[in-house]
Design goal:
The protein is an alpha+beta fold. The longest helix has 15 residues. It is built from 4 helices and 12 strands, in the order βββαβββαββαβββαβ. 21% of the residues lie in helices and 36% in strands. The chain has a 7-stranded mixed sheet, covered by helices on one side. It is globular and about 55 Å long. Strand 5 and strand 6 form a beta hairpin.
Length: 195
């Protein structure tokens, strides 16, 4: 079977970059080996779909806009009414979800080969991301495990807050290299490490 190649390619240069002499403000890395599934529930089946997601993943989610859950390499978050990203480091994720969610409840789309996941962490993560997206990244407005759908110019991104200083960004693979470079430019001022 063919191995999935990173769309970031030669732009992925590990080490310290930018103004890192005074310390590293953010760390950036690509997360690989993940299954990324989008589920869209019909308006009258949302409670059933959330229960099914919980039974398939162990991540129980309430019907509240943006709410999410994180447990190690697994996560789930809502980003629009009845729309959810479910992520796990297991190739069976789609099969598990399909075994508990019928077409009468929701649609299931495997986005694994269509998205790149970039993790941004560190004491200046909120500040760097605020330079790129017109949303409030402070924890009172964007709590841990919550998700958002937003744009950086014409580049769509789904973002989930993982912890106090960590965010996962889901971008289309076709824009991943360009966005990676833009993210690096935004982080130069505070210094950044690529792992």
């Amino acid at each position: 079977m063919a191995e999935l190649q990173s769309p970031i390619g030669s732009a992925y240069v590990t080490g310290d970059h930018g103004n890192a002499a005074g310390g590293v403000g953010v760390t950036i890395r690509e997360r690989t080996g993940l299954s990324i599934i989008q589920i869209t529930a019909w308006s009258d089946t949302i409670p059933e779909v959330l229960t099914a997601i919980g039974s398939a993943t162990g991540l129980v989610l309430q019907n509240k806009p943006g709410l999410g859950r994180v447990a190690g390499e697994k996560s789930v978050f809502g980003f629009a009414p009845g729309r959810y990203f479910v992520v796990a480091a297991t190739p069976e994720l789609e099969l598990r979800l399909r075994s508990v969610i019928s077409a009468e409840l929701a649609t299931i789309i495997d986005l694994t080969h269509g998205r790149t996941v970039i993790r941004v962490s560190g004491p200046h993560a909120e500040w760097v991301l605020s330079k790129l997206f017109a949303i409030d990244f402070s924890e009172h407005a964007f709590p841990i495990a919550y998700g958002r759908a937003t744009l950086h110019h014409d580049i769509h991104a789904n973002i989930q807050r993982i912890d106090d200083e960590t965010f996962d960004l889901y971008v289309f693979r076709t824009f991943a290299r360009s966005f990676w470079k833009t993210l690096g430019h935004a982080a130069e001022e505070v210094g950044y490490k690529v792992e």
